[in-house]
Amino acid sequence: MPRWDDAPMVGRASELAALLACVDRAAAGRSSTVLLSGDAGVGKTRLLGEVTARAVDRGVRVLTGHCVDLGDVGLPYLPFVDLLRPVAAEPGMAPGSTADPVLAPLFAGRPGPPQPVPEGRDLSRPLPHRAAPPPVDDGRLQLFEAVAALVCELAGAAPLLLVLEDVHWADRSSRDLLRYLLARLADEPVAVIASYRADDLHRRHPLRPLLAELVRLPGVERLELSPLPDAEVGALVRRLGSEAGPLPESVVEDVVTRAEGNAFYAEELLAAGRHGEALPLALTDVLLARVEQRSPEAQQVLRVAAVAGRRVRHELVATVSGLADGDLETALAEVVHHYLLVVSDDGRYRFRHALLREAVLADLLPGERVRLHAAIASYLARVPDAGTAAERAHHARASNDLPGAFSASLVAASAAGGVGAPAEQLQHLEAALALWSAVPEAAERAGRDQAALLVETAAAARSVGEPARAVALLRSALEVLPADAAPEIRARVHYTLAQAMVRVEDDAGAYRESSAAMALVPADPPSKARTWAAATHARMSYSVGRFDEADAAVDEALAAADALGFDGAWADIAVTQARARPGADPAAVLARLDEALIRARRSGNVEVEMRVLFNLATVTFEAGRIQDALDWTRRGTRRARDLGVEWSYYPAELRHLHVTALYMTGDWDGSLAEADVLARVPDMSAHVRADGLLVLVGRGDPGARARIDWARSLVPRLGSHVLLDFVTAGSEIDLATWEGRPQQAVDVALATYRRLQREWDDDHIGMLRLAGSALTAVADAAAVARRAADADHWMRAGDDLAAAARASVETYRETYGDTLGVEAHAWLARIAAETARVRGEVAPELWRAAVDAFGFGHVYEEARSRLRLAEALLATGDRAGAAAEAALAHEVAVRLGAAPLRTALEGLIRRGRLEVAGVRTVEVGAVLTPRETEVLRLLAAGRTNRQIGAELYISEKTASVHVSNILAKLGANGRTEAVAIAAARGLLTGSA
Q: Which domain of life is it from (predicted)?
């Protein structure tokens, strides 16, 4: 695994700019200094490495000195000895100063007593200075003046950057010399950057007064290096882990959360995670070294605080630590002044970094930890207002008080449910379930039996988007139900299990469970259990094609819900009825759903409300009313977030639809932002994050491949996650098309179609998009192969894709009739046009139909179809029409940042000599640069941009730019065509 400081720098753009500005001021002849602070591991050294590299590129000479922690007895001037090593090794850099005997000890690495003033040195003519130098009354003036003269001599030859790292460890003599230099140097081309650890500067640290003095000097500024934002730490972690394959997002998020913006910590945690370590030993040692330097009383305070939690009240520390008041105050002052604990705004103490707390916890002996947990649990039991039920449960369990932990977990679960925190509710309920068999009289303590607790826990699991977990819990509930359980109770578990099973694509199993619920309770007299059983059974019967049985259940459930005033059940069955048979009048469906939304809200049933909102968005989306759909998705996702259920099934699908609709309307920035949500996304909602691939691939972003690999790694593990499979496959196909890999596009499309046939019996209509996209690659390949009269393979591939598309439509129509939505019709038009292109037919009328079909609001696919229409019109001699279509498509490509589409369009415009504003026409036979010739050679060998970059020692992004230039110069639509054109013109010399 690469080290973080070896990889390209992540983030720090503003800090890097500030430091380079310091360098630039020096290059312009004005001395400048930055005092760079930051916690250990936050990235100071990495940033300085970037600055020095860029300074060298600017023609600035760089000298670096390092301070070393040698305890109370340090070597004088050590960082300056280190800094001057290059000068000592190459005396020609400063011949005047290297001959000065005063500097000889520094050059030799053995600074000694002050030397006599050498002949010729006129100290009455001091160096230019920005302020009077500080008085030096201990015989060191000659040495300090000699060092200043050396610096000026070096700067006279070239601008100079002096870097002093870790000056918090600098000895007193070095600090004094630094003070002298910064006060003595004036308008010299010298920049100084001195770094130090902020977390090491306790109140009595000797560097503190020096820093306060230095910042008063002109040209001296302080720059604090704050922790990296979470997004940048995530990017760093993904880059560090990329060599071993894509990292699961759960791993990335765990490292990001624990590292708290510290790059070194992130690297260590990632490495430890690969070896199964909770906290890496090396990192533990680093953190504990600071703890072990403190007094025994201070260490006791830290142990209590670590066991208590990240934030702890003063009263708890005072009670549990056992320290006398005076000793406690002294110990707290010590840990706060040394930045181990900090005081929050509410007066509580918290660890400066969460990993420091982890290290202290890991160092505790088991018995000591149990005793502290017991003492804290006892305190919280006596003073309930001092903590939450969740805290009481945690400390009770950790002190082996299982009954206390059980009761407190249930109270904590109730509190979490009351404030709309289902994830925490699920955590506490599962903790209670784990203790059930170990706690005497658990049912009496809980106030319900185990089956009821399992059902309650399953509901929380569904709320946080864990349907598989909900299914497992409900099955366990059926197993533990008493033999004499009331039929209504047993029926409730069955129909609730059916509702969960349909969310994991087990329609047949869901139908069995809803049938079992119906068999347990009679229809007469009407009851709540029977009404919900019938409502659920109607949905499940429709899903397995038992329409007569479903219709009967609908009629029964609606009548009973009306009679009993069950608004939630009425709303649920109304949605089922309205959406059971595609092709119904959209206006009537929307009216029915509007009424269902009112009733769902009135009932307080959150899941049914979310189901209604999702269907309102879906109906408008399927009708091609994308802006109306966006209004509903915004409303639904906002409502779900307010209720704390944003990752339950329907809210997750609302977000998926929201991301997709934004992408279709051309709001690509908004679409990507919604896909890249910061919250932890459950695996079953991974398709929401994968939705971002639509934009990444469309823009030619190099990060698309890593996200495809991540999504593809989840598909086999999740098994039946059809939407994730579809989103990933569609993006893979588009990427393969743009990169000139037509066979991969075909293979992915057909393999996904086969998986879809296994998962869904009656709806394969999503294959239209996959087939239409893959046919683009096939048609490109066929056009190139046709020049060599060898297009048979691609003709057969096109036939296979078209046949799969036809079969998917036939299967759909067998069940749902002629009710295809507008997007499906648009893809059918695209397939017809691409199939003609595979056969070598121009067919502008087919491409005009595709453009019109996507005009319902799919901005990108409309532009892609315009590209082909322009190409077809050009082939028929209609240059004006071709230019008009290309201009419209080009405007969209530029606005979206769709680099591959823009490259293809500009290639067509140049090749056809079309007049399009903003596109400069160049000679088709333009000469390639030597680097472009190398890239073309690798393109011909089938290399990807990443592989080209690796072989030529350039970045993937740079390789992509070269490829785009080649396509533009050759007037090619894609990589495959570029290679064919180059071969025909004799531009391919040599082989890869």
A: Bacteria
Select from 818, 804, 855, 853 the least CA-distant residue to 833: 853
Question: Side chain identity at 951, as an amino acid letter?
Answer: E
Across the chain, mean pLDDT equals 85
Q: How do strand 160-165 and strand 61-66 relate by DSSP bridges? A: parallel
Bridge partner list, 33: 192, 220
Structure tokens at 22: 């310091």
Between 183 and 990, whose confidence is greater?
A: 183
Work out the number of other CB atoms within 10 angstroms of the CB of residue 271. Answer: 17
Cα 180 to chain centroid distance, Å, stands at 47
Residue 702 CB partners (closer than 8 Å, separation 6+): 945, 946, 956, 957, 960
Longest Cα–Cα distance of the chain, Å, equals 118
Cβ-based burial of 128 (10 A; exposed 0-12, middle 13-18, buried ≥19): exposed
3-state SS of 626-651 is: HHHHHHHHHHHHHHHHHHCCCCCHHH
CATH topology (fold) of 292-387: Arc Repressor Mutant, subunit A (1.10.10)
Angle 307-428-491 from CA coordinates, rounded to 5°: 170
Answer whether 292-387 and 930-984 agree in fold: yes
Kindly give the pairing relationship between strand 349-351 and strand 32-38: unpaired
> The dihedral of CA 204, 208, 210, 213: what is its sign?
negative
Domain at 13-224: CATH architecture: 3-Layer(aba) Sandwich (3.40)
The answer to whether 39 and 353 have CB atoms below 8 angstroms apart is: yes
Distance from C-alpha of 88 to C-alpha of 97, rounded to nearest angstrom: 10
Say how far residue 973 (Cα) sits from the centre of its chain: 32
Using pLDDT thresholds of 50, 70 and 90, give the confidence band for residue 276: low
CATH superfamily, domain at 566-691: Tetratricopeptide repeat domain (1.25.40.10)
DSSP annotation of 224: E
Question: What is the side-by-side strand order in the sheet with 311-312?
Answer: 311-312, 349-351, 341-343
For position 245, what pLDDT does the model report? 60
Other Cβ atoms less than 10 A from the Cβ of 678: the count is 10
Specify whether the CB–CB gap between 472 and 480 falls below 8 A: no
- Provide the 8-state DSSP code for 76: T
Backbone angles phi, psi at 3, to 5 degrees: -80, 155
For the chain, give the percent of residues with pLDDT over 90: 45
Q: Where are the domains of the chain?
A: 13-224, 230-277, 292-387, 566-691, 696-831, 842-919, 930-984
If residue 341 lies in a helix (H) or strand (E), which one and from where to where? Answer: strand 341-343
- Asked if 839 and 825 touch (Cβ cutoff 8 Å), the reply is no
* Residue 121 scores a pLDDT above 50: no
How is domain 930-984 classified at the architecture level of CATH?
Answer: Orthogonal Bundle (1.10)
Helix/strand/coil for 323:
coil
